[in-house]
């Protein structure tokens, strides 16, 4: 896996390189637009971390060049220009994600993983949270290594939640998730399914909690 | 007080003191000039006698002559011929020159009185003062005598009037009459007219100044809403006011310029801080794991978020002027709550959200509105104890109400929490002091406000309210105006 860091601050570039290197990437550093153009011409990168404000020009040129080369590289814009307009601009220009300086090591690694996972998810059918594992192809659920048989409604709720790790799912979204599998939806179908699912999860010793936030939705959290 | 009224009042005051001065002048004139006063007094007495005769009253019965015998006297007679002179009325005629032939009518009295006058003294029309020989007089020591011809019902009559001193103070009435006739009456006519003229003239002349101040007020409220300053107009203005307008515009230009510089500086400073902070943060993560490392990391992350808030604070106006459209506050609040859930779970808090069914629209910037709500929610999470619930309610207004079960904010600090860099607990290291200030700024930019309501059973209730979206129209030309403004004014 190759990763390119386009960053004019040498120390920051080296620190980022060491950090991602520890996580299994072979890393190159480009300190200017020119160097970045040269690097993407020479090698095929999986991930590019791109600073937008560079000494010899705008990082968006690099982004355009990457997209024009039909490269499959994931581009994460890394910048001090943290205002929302430039964030939207960068995403519109074809960046896959956006990270604002300063960021912690965990955050950087998490963003790189998230971008790669998002791309992988299309073929990768196994959803994991804590010790809960769901194969979306065969609809087999394992909790703590044991296969668990769960009613379809609860399973579809769990699947919808597993698709959005660490994020809230509104009641409406869950309703739609159930509806695609079951035709009859009663007023409190979601609440009922959620409470049954929660009971089952704790019975089976799952290391995840299903938290309900009133008026907002549901979230699956891994127990620490 | 308006200048026109001030001037009118001053005008009245000046005329009042003027009339006081004139009054004093009259008094001094008459009191140092007794002869003139006596003459005027006798004229008045003669007028009173004529009026009494006209009314068919015997003047001798007037109180003046009844109450002061030996002081005031008069005689009315016709004068067709010496021999046929006929006296109509008289009172105390001792010092009056005789009017009838002595031999014909006068008795002993006449002889005696006759001696008082110089030989040959006779009737004459006019005023004179004389000291009768051999008679001691009280008061003036002088007899003042006036002889005057009057016309009563078509006939001519002569009236003699005299006085020795003025114990009845008739002179005062004379002075008062003179004062009224020559001073107060003209003043009464002139002063109100002049005052009115001055009032109207100043009010008209000052109209441009009022327009200037109205425009300055508009600019102030526009700036509070984050709109650019527009120059004041100097159309149809007298030169003095046009100069004021020009000076105001020059000042506005400088102010706008320095505001821009300040914002640019804050923005640049925040940007410049971010890269070194990123270096520091990654550098620290390379250190071997320890409690100290984690603390430093947490502090650095805190510093990073403070820098972000400063940046947003500096950019809020620009963001609003770049993008302003109808924003659904319900959707914005819901989104903020959804995004805050992971953080809430991490700190063992629950979040509750409820809202009216339909969208509540506000004309503004969605990002800013979300930031404002997020700051409230994050603040609530930060300052309330674990295992409590934070409730977010969107009501008609539209307003967003964020309630927590934390310690609450003491009454004395409720204004201060909106100041930049205020922190409720000075000893506690966490929490950047810009969030609530930014929330208030964003509320102001949207014609809204934020207030803290104290709750009887503790906790904090923050109410963030906005002006309804349909009330004010978007101003697409605001930016263009601003550019013209910036280029049309000289920058020194």
Number of helices of chain A: 8
Measured between the Cα atoms of the first and last residue of chain B, the distance is: 37 Å
CATH level 3 topology of the largest domain in chain A = Rossmann fold
Low-confidence stretches of chain B: 101-121, 471-492
Number of separate domains of chain A: 2
Measure the end-to-end span of chain A.
30 Å
State the CATH class of the largest domain in chain B: Alpha Beta
Low-confidence stretches of chain A: none
CATH architecture of the largest domain in chain B: 2-Layer Sandwich
Could you name the CATH homologous superfamily of the largest domain in chain B? Histidine kinase-like ATPase, C-terminal domain
What would you say the CATH architecture of the largest domain in chain A is?
A: 3-Layer(aba) Sandwich
**Integer tally of domains of chain B:** 3
Mean pLDDT of chain B: 80
Structural class of chain B: alpha+beta
- CATH fold name of the largest domain in chain B: Heat Shock Protein 90
**What is the strand tally of chain B?**
12
Write the element-wise H/E pattern of chain B from the N-terminal end onward. Answer: HHHEEHHEEEHHHHEHEEHEEHEEH
Considering the protein shown, what is the CATH homologous superfamily of the largest domain in chain A?
Response regulator
Describe this structure in words.
The complex is a heterodimer of chains A (224) and B (492). The longest helix of chain A is centred in the middle third of the chain and has 16 residues, at 105-120. Chain A is built from eight helices and 13 strands. In chain A, 37% of the residues are buried. Chain A has helices spanning 10-22, 33-42, 59-68, 84-92, 105-120, 152-163, 171-181, 189-203, and strands at 2-6, 26-30, 47-50, 53-54, 57-58, 74-79, 97-100, 126-129, 132-135, 140-143, 146-148, 208-213, 217-222. Chain A has a five-stranded parallel sheet, sandwiched between helices. Chain A is 43% helix and 25% strand. Chain A is elongated, with a radius of gyration of 21 Å. Chain A has two domains: 2-120, Rossmann fold (3-Layer(aba) Sandwich); 126-222, Arc Repressor Mutant, subunit A. Chain B has 13 helices and twelve strands. Chain B is rod-shaped and about 145 Å long. The A-B interface holds A 9, 11-12, 15-16, 18-19, 80-85, 100-105, 108, 166-168, 170, 211, 213-217, 219, 221 and B 271-272, 274-275, 277-283, 285-286, 297, 300-301, 303-304, 307-308, 311-312, 315, 319, 322-323, 334, 337-339, 341-342, 344-345, 350-355, 367, 392.
